């Protein structure tokens, strides 16, 4: 599996995955489980609400009516290299007269796969469907032991198994409109959005259905260029014994791109109010007394001077921020008197809530201050470090966490959320095994 995703993308294109997911056989079983009542509801509506056929010349009194529909079995299994197989068994109660009731069994065997349409969206396609209708028992029969094939009766015409096969994918809880929601744009900040675009149709292996995704970010409605990934990302091979429904994987490049998008949107620019004032600063730096006649609060206005960088190691995620801070006083107007380069190395903490990844700065591991101009001596540089390091150490993480507190939406389809989440950070990628949960209906 380590090379499968790289094979999905033609060599001539610059598009390459930076994240992806594997829907496991356990996940398929769960989707079948939650789809069963939905399928029964759809079939009951389609079959019981259908008008009875008009009496035929050969049997003018025959008017069959379906009085009950019950889905007995509903399974979704993986076929490696091909797709999925949907198997449904439906028990039907049919009456043709007040005293005559018989049970029929409708069996549907369909092969499905997910394809990519010309618009770039994933869609569920039926490649083969075989319906059969059998009579199980009748109140007029003495031998009820064995089902037998139904003849071409009015029941066959009323059920219209061909129509059911044409719309068999609607019996699942993830029809095409939900698959399209996978590529919907999700907000990160008021002017920054993330979007996960499928690169190709999924691949099918014994481990599950493998989907490769490329992340794009929009700032103020326009897609932004992102750093080029140094190495192509491929889905790591999961343990074959994994019981999770879904395994998501995010590359190191994904996180660097995320912080680059936040930088482009201006979300990482911070304004830090220090505990100092010009008067207290003048006690340590005598020149300050001649610059400001009144006592004003000292402010640091920091902007990014180059793109952030994220490094993933075993059990550890680090973000490196490169800022330039103007140190000055007042607010309107802001009067800058010194420019300082600030390099922050901070540890990231990752968690998942519902369908969002919560990223927060857990601790600052290192801060380097360097004067942007060389006309100030080392004594002043050391003094500035003493005065402003505590403020930077506390306020930079606090402001970044404020930006990221809503979390970053993970790729997901509508109506499903994630539970039983286990995040593991490895060198170069983050793995998120989780289970699917159908959201409770509201309203």
UniProtKB/TrEMBL annotation:
GO terms for molecular function: lipid binding. Pfam families: LBP_BPI_CETP_C. InterPro entries: Bactericidal_perm-incr_a/b_dom (IPR017943), BPI_fold-BPI/LBP (IPR051660), Lipid-bd_serum_glycop_C (IPR001124). Gene3D superfamilies: Bactericidal permeability-increasing protein, domain 2. SUPFAM superfamilies: Bactericidal permeability-increasing protein, BPI. Residues 240-434 form the Lipid-binding serum glycoprotein C-terminal domain. Residues 132-154 are annotated as: Disordered. It comes from the Eukaryota. This is TENP protein. The gene is Tenp.
